[in-house]
TrEMBL record, chain A:
Organism field: candidate division TA06 bacterium DG_78
Segments traversing the membrane: 6-21, 28-45, 51-70, 91-109, 152-170
Keywords: Cell membrane, Membrane, Transmembrane, Transmembrane helix, Transport
Residue span, MrpA C-terminal/MbhD domain: 9-72
InterPro entries recorded: CPA3_Na-H_Antiporter_A, MrpA_C/MbhD, MrpA_C/MbhE, Nuo/plastoQ_OxRdtase_6_NuoJ
Entry GO CC: plasma membrane
Highest taxon listed in the record's lineage: Bacteria
Bilayer disposition of the protein: Multi-pass membrane protein
Subcellular location: Cell membrane
Location, primary (coarse class): membrane
Full protein name: Uncharacterized protein
Every MrpA C-terminal/MbhE domain range: 119-172
Automatic annotation (TrEMBL), chain B:
Plastid found in the keyword field: no
InterPro entries per UniProt: CPA3_antiporter_subunitC (IPR050601), NUOK/Mnh_C1-like (IPR039428)
Highest taxon in the source lineage: Bacteria
Keywords carried by this UniProt record: Cell membrane, Membrane, Transmembrane, Transmembrane helix
Taxonomic lineage from the root: Bacteria, Bacteria division TA06
One Gene Ontology CC term in the entry: plasma membrane
Family membership: Belongs to the CPA3 antiporters (TC 2.A.63) subunit C family.
Protein name: Cation:proton antiporter
Residue stretches spanning the membrane: 27-47, 72-96
Organism: candidate division TA06 bacterium DG_78
Keyword match Membrane: yes
Coiled coil: none
Topology within the bilayer: Multi-pass membrane protein
Subcellular location: Cell membrane
Amino acid sequence: MIELYLFLIFMLIAAIIATEIKDLLAAVISLGAVGFAVAIMFILVQAPDLAIVQIVVEVLTVVIFVAVILRTTHIDETIGKKLKGTQILSIVLYAFFTILFLIVVFRSFQELPEFGNATMKVASEYIKLGLPQTGGTNIVADVILDFRALDTLGEATVLFTSVIGVVALMRKVGRKK
Amino acid sequence: MIIFASCIILFLIGLYAIVTKRNLIKIAIGFAFIEYAVNLLFALIGFKHGALAPIITQVNTPHNFVDPIPQALVLTAIVIALGTTALMLTVILRIYNRYKTFDIAEIKKLKG
């Protein structure tokens, strides 16, 4: 699994560049690099459905970000300015929360199975019943469309609610000058 | 274990961008990083060495699949992440049209 480690390192470097660079367009391109690295890692951990969806969503995300930046500005003026009091306070709070979070993460990771040894307690039932009960050969599609179809209905509701929000915010009619 | 820890590092980078950056686009990028970190952690937990993608190609043979449930959950989460990102960027665009800046310290007109 050496290639998985390489992509993880690539992802982390691109993430640090995206948060610290001055040009916002370059930051968005780095965000796209992180997203496509995640898509390739989905392929490496045998999740082709996730990889397909991640590539489509990543392309759309980068296009939306670039569209916003092209209508506004692509220079981050806040980088390099002197730190204000509230910003120093937020950095201190972030450091405090990080220590707290790492303690919780360390404790909960003791309970997790080691990498590459999934327990499959619930999944074995789905794999056994997937083909006879739903007739679908792709177990992931069986789970989201048959066993947990109400979850998918909720997902569609959230998606259309966000579309209504975008349309309501972008419309020109009724906007004050 | 170190492979899960790198997801946590990506989560913390995203949280750093949200908490300490003053540019609205950087904050939106931080939210996207947190989403990627959680999705990737779920997919990595479901991995099994030597197993195949959960797609049945031959009936009547014992199946050796990776865990399909985290994949099904993450599939939902990825699409919802796109919706939240689009809504967030729309609000950011309206804020820029009103105040002509991305700096959250300059956006003060709503302050009581």
